[in-house]
Amino acid sequence: MNISIFGLGYVGVVCCACFSRDGHQVIGVDVESTKVDLVNNGKSTIIEKSLEEQISISVKNNLLKATQDYRMAINHTDISFICVGTPSLSNGSINLAYIYEVAKQIAEVIKDKESFHTVVIRSTVKVGTLKACQEIIEDISGKVHGKDFGVVSNPEFLREGTAMHDFVNPPYTIVGTNSETSKSVLTSLYASLDAPIYYLKPEEAEMIKYANNNFHAMKITFANEIGNICKENGVDGHVVMDIVAKDTKLNLSPYYLKPGFAFGGSCLPKDVRGLIQTAKNLDLKTPLLSSLLKSNFYQIDRGLDLIYSTGSKKIGFLGFAFKSGTDDLRESPIVGVIETLIGKGYDLNVYDSNVHLSSLLGKNKEYVNSHIPHIYKLLKEDVNEVIEHSEVLVIGNNAKEFSEILPTIPSNKIIIDFVRVDKEKTSKDNYIGICW
């Protein structure tokens, strides 16, 4: 393929080397003559293992050249990768001026091109950037997206020091586009990589890189805070975290990485408070750990705001144990939501077969009677009674019966789902998901 790559910084020059290594004809584009001259002389613009050797080979084999002439580059290629910088502004947001400038340049040139052109954003950008670039290109060129050109979000996952290896060994390849032609182009381009390709909506693809990098930052910070507590207790933090990382069933797994409602139960809230207090007793600061309960309370407030926004006072809860398959009500976040609504005078009905059964058998009776007798009075034995009486139904845990009931709920009832009992549903019409 014939590829132009805008921006000869870290991401751009690695792309130049790797695509040309695969036999593609690559033209690197940059406004700085120094970078252009370096590449044309077989040199790298950054220090990276094996990068300069590959650039030298590609230039000698006439598979790679660089230029400041963007018109020539676009006219001689079918795919343009935008790899320019997106530096931070003073308020922390990112500067997209360079992205939009390249989009304008591409639009100016493809105005007179007859062939289909694919525009790929490789830089890290905020949600909505691809759509904005699509509109810029359509406005300036007069071309139609999907017919004359296509835009793609294709975030990179390169680590400094191992970028060449990471390029050909990614965890996956993300292709976010609404253009079937561009989807096919990217599929063909990355066919040689031994990694799955995930085809997403552009906005989902744009969010992936931010989610990944913030997750990495969180893990590093978490390990450091645990390490500090370990150090002050005479414990080797590396030993502790090495064992934590060996648990791939829960710790390093998708299990707890599903957006939804707040955590609760007998363990997590108690143990977070316990570790934070341990750190305080050692005069240690734990900004990340100390934020966990605050963030958890915010998710409860967010759930309440969704209920308030309906304007209805007749609310039914389907499930209020903190987890399906259990009757445990200790620190259940749904209990907090229900108690808040009771205090505000809402008309409530509650259904949870496990809680009802355990209260009858006495297993949970003492807790119910001593802590939440006002909620127990709202508990109904028949789920249909709750559905019929309520205008808004809140799904509080992912018991299997609720996924079966969901399609039968009348369309005049508003459904607020805290747990996503149906993995295919997203917020639409009378259905509202808390994070989807």
UniProtKB/TrEMBL annotation:
<dbReference type="InterPro" id="IPR008927">
    <property type="entry name" value="6-PGluconate_DH-like_C_sf"/>
</dbReference>
<dbReference type="GO" id="GO:0051287">
    <property type="term" value="F:NAD binding"/>
</dbReference>
<feature type="binding site">
    <location>
        <position position="160"/>
    </location>
    <ligand>
        <name>NAD(+)</name>
    </ligand>
</feature>
<comment type="similarity">
    <text>Belongs to the UDP-glucose/GDP-mannose dehydrogenase family.</text>
</comment>
<dbReference type="InterPro" id="IPR036291">
    <property type="entry name" value="NAD(P)-bd_dom_sf"/>
</dbReference>
<feature type="binding site">
    <location>
        <position position="30"/>
    </location>
    <ligand>
        <name>NAD(+)</name>
    </ligand>
</feature>
<dbReference type="InterPro" id="IPR017476">
    <property type="entry name" value="UDP-Glc/GDP-Man"/>
</dbReference>
<dbReference type="InterPro" id="IPR014027">
    <property type="entry name" value="UDP-Glc/GDP-Man_DH_C"/>
</dbReference>
<feature type="binding site">
    <location>
        <position position="330"/>
    </location>
    <ligand>
        <name>NAD(+)</name>
    </ligand>
</feature>
<dbReference type="Pfam" id="PF03721">
    <property type="entry name" value="UDPG_MGDP_dh_N"/>
</dbReference>
<feature type="domain" description="UDP-glucose/GDP-mannose dehydrogenase C-terminal">
    <location>
        <begin position="316"/>
        <end position="423"/>
    </location>
</feature>
<keyword id="KW-0560">Oxidoreductase</keyword>
<feature type="binding site">
    <location>
        <position position="323"/>
    </location>
    <ligand>
        <name>substrate</name>
    </ligand>
</feature>
<keyword id="KW-0520">NAD</keyword>
<feature type="binding site">
    <location>
        <position position="86"/>
    </location>
    <ligand>
        <name>NAD(+)</name>
    </ligand>
</feature>
<feature type="binding site">
    <location>
        <position position="270"/>
    </location>
    <ligand>
        <name>NAD(+)</name>
    </ligand>
</feature>
<protein>
    <recommendedName>
        <fullName>UDP-glucose 6-dehydrogenase</fullName>
        <ecNumber>1.1.1.22</ecNumber>
    </recommendedName>
</protein>
<dbReference type="InterPro" id="IPR028357">
    <property type="entry name" value="UDPglc_DH_bac"/>
</dbReference>
<dbReference type="Pfam" id="PF00984">
    <property type="entry name" value="UDPG_MGDP_dh"/>
</dbReference>
<dbReference type="InterPro" id="IPR036220">
    <property type="entry name" value="UDP-Glc/GDP-Man_DH_C_sf"/>
</dbReference>
<feature type="binding site">
    <location>
        <position position="35"/>
    </location>
    <ligand>
        <name>NAD(+)</name>
    </ligand>
</feature>
<dbReference type="Pfam" id="PF03720">
    <property type="entry name" value="UDPG_MGDP_dh_C"/>
</dbReference>
<dbReference type="InterPro" id="IPR001732">
    <property type="entry name" value="UDP-Glc/GDP-Man_DH_N"/>
</dbReference>
<feature type="binding site">
    <location>
        <begin position="256"/>
        <end position="260"/>
    </location>
    <ligand>
        <name>substrate</name>
    </ligand>
</feature>
<feature type="binding site">
    <location>
        <begin position="157"/>
        <end position="160"/>
    </location>
    <ligand>
        <name>substrate</name>
    </ligand>
</feature>
<feature type="binding site">
    <location>
        <position position="264"/>
    </location>
    <ligand>
        <name>substrate</name>
    </ligand>
</feature>
<dbReference type="GO" id="GO:0006065">
    <property type="term" value="P:UDP-glucuronate biosynthetic process"/>
</dbReference>
<feature type="binding site">
    <location>
        <position position="124"/>
    </location>
    <ligand>
        <name>NAD(+)</name>
    </ligand>
</feature>
<dbReference type="GO" id="GO:0003979">
    <property type="term" value="F:UDP-glucose 6-dehydrogenase activity"/>
</dbReference>
<dbReference type="GO" id="GO:0000271">
    <property type="term" value="P:polysaccharide biosynthetic process"/>
</dbReference>
<dbReference type="InterPro" id="IPR014026">
    <property type="entry name" value="UDP-Glc/GDP-Man_DH_dimer"/>
</dbReference>
<feature type="binding site">
    <location>
        <position position="209"/>
    </location>
    <ligand>
        <name>substrate</name>
    </ligand>
</feature>
<comment type="pathway">
    <text>Nucleotide-sugar biosynthesis; UDP-alpha-D-glucuronate biosynthesis; UDP-alpha-D-glucuronate from UDP-alpha-D-glucose: step 1/1.</text>
</comment>
<feature type="active site" description="Nucleophile">
    <location>
        <position position="267"/>
    </location>
</feature>
